[in-house]
Amino acid sequence: MAGKYHVFEGGEGLKILPYHRYRFIIRVKGYERAWHCFDLQVQGLRPEEAAHYQEAFGKKITHLFSFRDTEQVHTYLGILKEDSPEKTVFETPEGREFEFRPLFPEREKSAETKGE
């Protein structure tokens, strides 16, 4: 993937930084599970890639995202459902929803104020 830093078009979304941990919530058919992950990476797909995946899955795909947990690297294709400074949410073609939030949001805020 191209780089670990990603801020979506609006520039006001969740800041994805290297070496930061994130709270990770997966939702599937009413079931919800939360734990933490690190090395979150997000890549927007080029229009020709998105068209290829839409043809293959029959659903719109806009992003490729991956993360590590304590066991392995997970890589998924999905659509960006929500992007705010507090969280980023993706949905996969299979209907799984992935939500990412900073694990320590107070540290993120204090790091931003120190930089000013």
Largest sheet: 6 strands, antiparallel, barrel
DSSP helical segment count: 2
Query: Beta fraction of the residues?
Result: 35-45%
- Largest beta sheet: strand ordering: 1-2-3-4-5-6
- For the termini, the CA-CA separation is 30 Å
Instruction: Compute the average pLDDT.
Output: 83
Order of helices and strands: EEHEEEEH
Protein architecture, described:
- With 116 residues, the chain is α+β, with helices and mostly antiparallel strands.
- It has one domain.
- It has two helices and six strands, in the order ββαββββα.
- The chain has helices at residues 47-57, 105-114, and strands spanning 21-28, 31-44, 63-68, 73-83, 88-91, 97-102.
- It is globular, with a radius of gyration of 14 Å.
In short:
This protein is α+β, with helices and mostly antiparallel strands and 116 residues long. It has 2 helices and 6 strands; from the N terminus they run E-E-H-E-E-E-E-H.
Question: What structural keywords apply?
Answer:
116 residues, alpha+beta, six-stranded antiparallel β-barrel, 2 helices, globular, disordered N terminus
Write the layout of secondary structure elements.
Elements: E1 21-28, E2 31-44, H1 47-57, E3 63-68, E4 73-83, E5 88-91, E6 97-102, H2 105-114
Antiparallel strand pairs: 1-2, 1-6, 2-3, 3-4, 4-5, 5-6
